[in-house]
Design goal:
The chain is mainly α and 393 residues long. Among the domains are: 140-259, Leucine-rich Repeat Variant (Alpha Horseshoe); 277-393, Leucine-rich Repeat Variant, CATH 1.25.10. The chain is 62% helix and 2% strand. The protein is built from 24 helices and 2 strands. Strand 1 and strand 2 form a beta hairpin. Helix 4 runs antiparallel to helix 5 (63-75). The longest helix has 14 residues, at 32-45. The radius of gyration is 31 Å and the shape is elongated.
């Protein structure tokens, strides 16, 4: 091993390009000292093939080999070596591509940014998951905004994701423009990114997106507005309760619930007339989050609905709202044909903490238990089912 180490070291001094194949073989040597010497020698040579070898050495089982490879690549971080690292982003080995991206990020050179942006189109799933983090907060926002107009849609949607992670208000204009991108994944990524920005400057753009010709854009905008926490979003979301797209209506209802908007109650109650059980459930869930007593009359009406899932949600919502005017309806629900409705009614009455509920609850204890139905209640008039074990949140 001692002779091989000295030979490897000497090749780094005098071998030139012709020595690289042998040094690359030395990186696989069973002797640790030989591999360390090979890393040193490749660092001295600094050729394109040597850089690829050093990138591979970053995955060595020995920490010192990995450290020496990283140090060597750092020393090569000049303008002359960056093009070689950029070419390594296209290497056939995915681990080499990932290591090259990491080294370029650490070097922090603006010259490397176009290459890193191009690498966002990486197709290998294992590598793809790591590339967005190589565009850090040090990456100039203008460069990323330019990439939002790249011809490759994979790059556009990943850049939108990165801009959301960086959280800079400077990205807002570009992300708002991306809401009208031809690619649905780009539009969705842009809306998600905007939802992560705390600035009220995003609200007008998201409200405009709520009227987009693309339903997927409207869906993403509704969800983003719910996350924004801004009361300025309420009028647009109320209007979106009438959207022709079922998912837009559902997400708008959910968003209004998150915003705690009492003005949404009439519109949410109206949704219970819809034929789709899922959107009715979403409306009931939103009402429970709003928690206003003005919703109680409508929820009591819903407690008579033919859909057991909707009755269960209404009972849970009434318990959360906490109005004693709901007690008669909840007492009646204790005799519901559905087990989960009865359970929700009992829990709701317990929350109301009223002596008026005691007799009804005692009667439940004395009645013979009905046959337990399936845990998953088939929604009336629908192919959907709803697992209610977890309760209403």
């Amino acid at each position: 091993a001692g002779v091989r180490c000295r030979a490897v070291y000497a090749l780094g001094q005098v071998g030139g390009e012709t020595a690289v194949p042998g040094l690359l073989r030395a990186l696989k040597d069973s002797q640790l000292e030989v591999r360390r010497s090979a890393v040193y020698a490749l660092g001295k040579l600094g050729t394109e093939a040597a850089i690829v070898g050093l990138l591979k050495a970053l995955k060595d089982c020995d920490s010192e080999v990995r450290g020496k490879a990283a140090s060597a690549l750092g020393r090569l971080g000049s303008k002359d070596s960056i093009p070689r690292l950029l070419r390594a982003l296209e290497h056939e080995n995915p681990e080499v591509r990932l290591s090259a991206a990491e080294v370029l990020r650490q070097l922090g050179s603006e010259v490397a940014i176009p290459g890193l942006l191009k690498a966002l189109a990486e197709q290998d799933p294992a590598v793809q998951a790591h590339f967005p983090r190589h565009l850090s907060s040090e990456t100039p926002i203008p460069e990323l905004l330019k990439a939002l107009e790249h011809q490759n849609s994979n790059i556009r949607w990943k850049v939108a994701e990165v801009l959301g992670q960086l959280g800079s208000d400077a990205a807002i204009p570009g992300l708002l423009k991306a809401l009208e991108d031809q690619d649905p994944s780009v539009r969705e990524s842009a809306a998600e990114a905007l939802s992560k920005l705390s600035s009220n400057a995003v609200i007008p753009g998201l409200l405009k997106a709520l009227e987009s010709q693309y339903s997927i854009t409207r869906r993403s905008a509704a969800e983003a507005l719910g996350k924004s926490g801004s009361p300025a979003a309420i009028p647009g979301l109320l209007h979106a309760l009438e959207d022709p797209d079922l998912i837009v209506r559902g997400r708008s209802a959910s968003a209004l619930g998150k915003l705690g908007c009492e003005a949404a109650i009439p519109g949410l109650l109206k949704i219970f007339k819809h034929s789709d059980s899922h959107i009715r459930w979403t409306a009931a869930s939103a009402l429970s989050k709003i928690g206003s007593k003005s919703a109680v009359p409508g929820l009591l009406e819903v407690l008579e609905h033919s859909d057991c899932n909707i009755r269960w949600t209404a009972a849970s919502a009434l318990g959360k709202i906490g109005s004693k005017s709901a007690i008669p309806g909840l007492l009646k629900a204790l005799t519901d044909a559905d087990l989960y409705v009865r359970m929700a009614a009992a829990s709701a009455l317990g929350r109301l903490d009223s002596k008026a509920a005691v007799s009804g609850l005692l009667r439940v204890l004395s009645d013979p238990p009905p046959r337990r139905p399936s845990q998953r209640c088939r929604c009336a008039g629908s192919n959907q089912s709803c697992d209610r074990d977890s309760g209403l949140t």
